[in-house]
Amino acid sequence: MAIRFEDIKPKIGSRILWDDRADLFTEEAAAAIRAKVEERTVVVFPKVDLTDEEQLRITDLMGGRIRITGRNNVQEIENDDVYQVTLDAKINPQPEYVLGTFFWHMDGITIDTPPPFATLLSCRRKAPQGGQTEFASTYAAYEGLPEAEKAALEGLKAVHSVKASLRHIEDAIPEKVRDAVIGIGLIKEHPIVWTHDSGRKSMIIGTTADHVANMPIPQGRALLIRLQEWAAQPDYSYRHEWEEGDFAVWDNTGAMHRVIPYDERSGRMMHRTTIAGTETIN
């Protein structure tokens, strides 16, 4: 197999290299990429310049595709399995969910199916300023916790909601649509520590986590913020400086991510696809 990987940082991130671009579109390559995503949290394909059809082919080879975002967009592309992530008002008349991605989060935590395994993102137009994407491994962050803190987290559950994820921008949502915007999704209770089928443990944290069940609100929210900060420290996180044509795949079940704020007039355009999850949180 003529694809290779090189580590970006000791605990997170790999870059994929290839001799022949066609080598990326095989079942063997897809299995290797998926395994590397599970191991290293995020895999970057520098300047690969995928078409939507090629991105969907990689998505399908790595696992079944799923749509996780409501289609409020007036998209410029025909295939609805590719979601255009943009603040361009002509395409996205309801920007609140994109603005919410300025803060650490995990995708699909409030849906009534297993959370998506992975998110795949192509950079079509980058922002002149801002727009980088940051990833934080909640696998590596959990593994790095002191044993006493790991023990203290066992059995704790957090209550997740879309409303919580939009708390930081709620005042900026037009009042006439505010209730509808923050009211989507379910209120879900998940363990803070997720023991995966593999036996590895990650944390389910980020802005959807509103409070800790059966714990006073101030103490619970303080704990969740501390865990976010712990996971986001440089040892466990990676910031990708996008170049147009870059493509990245990350393990949504073991990572938070966020975008560095950018101007809505920047023209930033990302094309996103999603791989369905196979593990129920337990």
Structural features, described:
The protein is of the alpha+beta class and 282 residues long. It has a single domain, classed as 4-Layer Sandwich (Double-stranded beta-helix), CATH 3.60.130. The protein has a 7-stranded mixed sheet, covered by helices on one side. It is globular, with a radius of gyration of 18 Å. The mean pLDDT is 94. It is an enzyme of class 1 (oxidoreductase). Its EC number is 1.14.11.-. This is TauD/TfdA family dioxygenase. InterPro entries: TauD-like_sf, TauD/TfdA-like, TfdA_dioxygenase. Keywords: Dioxygenase, Iron, Metal-binding, Oxidoreductase.
Beta-strand segment tally: 15
What would the CATH topology be?
A: Double-stranded beta-helix
How are the strands of the biggest sheet laid out side by side? Answer: 1-2-3-13-5-15-4
Order of helices and strands: EEHEHEHEEHHEHHEEEEHEEEE
Largest sheet: 7 strands, mixed
What is the rounded Rg? 18 Å
Class from helix and strand fractions: alpha+beta
Our count of domains comes out at 1
Share of helix, binned? 10-25%
Low-confidence stretches: none
CATH class category label: Alpha Beta
> Based on CA inertia axes, which overall geometry fits?
globular
Number of helices: 8
Please state roughly what percent of the residues sit in beta strands, choosing from under 5%, 5-15%, 15-25%, 25-35%, 35-45% or over 45%: 15-25%
Pfam families: TauD
Domain TauD/TfdA-like: 6-274
GO molecular function, one term: dioxygenase activity
Enzyme class: oxidoreductase
